[in-house]
Write a structure and sequence with these properties.
Number of helices: 8
Order of helices and strands: HHHEEEEHEHEHEHH
Radius of gyration: 20 Å
Strand content: 25-35%
Structural class: alpha+beta
Oligomer: single chain
Number of strands: 7
Shape: elongated
Strand order of the largest sheet: 5-2-3-6-7
Distance between the termini: 39 Å
Amino acid sequence: MIDQQRIEKAVASIIEATGEDPQREGLRDTPERVARMYADFFSGLDEDPRAVLATGFNEGIHDLVILRDIPFFSICEHHLLPMFGQAHIGYVPNGRVVGASKLARALDILARRPQIQERLTSQLVEVIQDAIAPDGAGVVVDAEHMCMALRGVKKPGSRIVTYATRGDFSAGATTREELLAALDRA
């Protein structure tokens, strides 16, 4: 559970530490707004992504399913700055499929936690593999990180691409290459 009162106090302290007056008209409500924002940004801490994938349909499908270009944002745990981009999910059902919105919702739950992109990618493919038990699953995440764009090296537009595979996609390079090629073409 997010402690919004503690966040409000911390933000007021940060404002003071910058030399500003947290009671100034333009800043007076800022600690409360920031606390609500963090409660939203980190709402995935109290949710289980596997639960949203529990509802599926036994359709006898065994062909590759791809959901592309799913927008997301998360907060980098190293600098508490946003990262945002798109995720792409592919899986080979073992007869059972889930609704596309369920896959996007699982991504949102995992993204709404303090994260690093590498962990987010790995966690999402693990959740898919555990929850729907496909023959194989793969996730590609392509994102821009504000910690890299706004501070440090200051390289806006730079993107990080991560991918993770499980099941049949992890068994051999050919299968993994076929998944990545299909994601690129879809």
